[in-house]
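Sequence design from tokenized structure. All designs in this work follow the same two-part layout: the structure record, then the generated sequence. An example of the structure record is given first.
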């Protein structure tokens, strides 16, 4: 997995598991993965060292992967979307298609 793929994967995991992180963890991960701040910029924002930010990001990313391994929210959502797409291909009824579209919006 290259750097961009890993970056996108962690950003996706952040979407699913952000509520399980501390406020500081979530803030640092947002700065790095969503706002594309450098380690030095984040260090200035949270008043710590660049190395501490780097360690924080590594530990929090590991925590996100652990949550996914144990809870599987991303995997389940992807599977649910795959099944809904397959159902849409088979359904002819406009009413059912509209309900499937509505169901997709629930996630």
């Amino acid at each position: 997995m290259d750097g961009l793929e890993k970056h996108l994967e962690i950003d996706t995991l952040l979407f699913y598991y952000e509520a399980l992180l501390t406020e500081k963890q979530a803030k640092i991960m947002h700065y790095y993965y969503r706002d594309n701040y450098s380690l030095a910029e984040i260090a200035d924002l949270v008043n710590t060292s660049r190395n501490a930010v780097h360690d924080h990001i590594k530990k929090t990313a590991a925590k996100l992967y652990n949550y996914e391994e144990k809870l599987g929210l991303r995997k389940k959502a992807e599977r649910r979307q795959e099944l809904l797409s397959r159902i849409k291909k088979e359904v002819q009824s406009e009413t059912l298609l509209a309900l499937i579209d509505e169901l997709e919006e629930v996630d």
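The two ends are 27 Å apart (CA to CA). We note this feature because it recurs in several other targets discussed in the main text.
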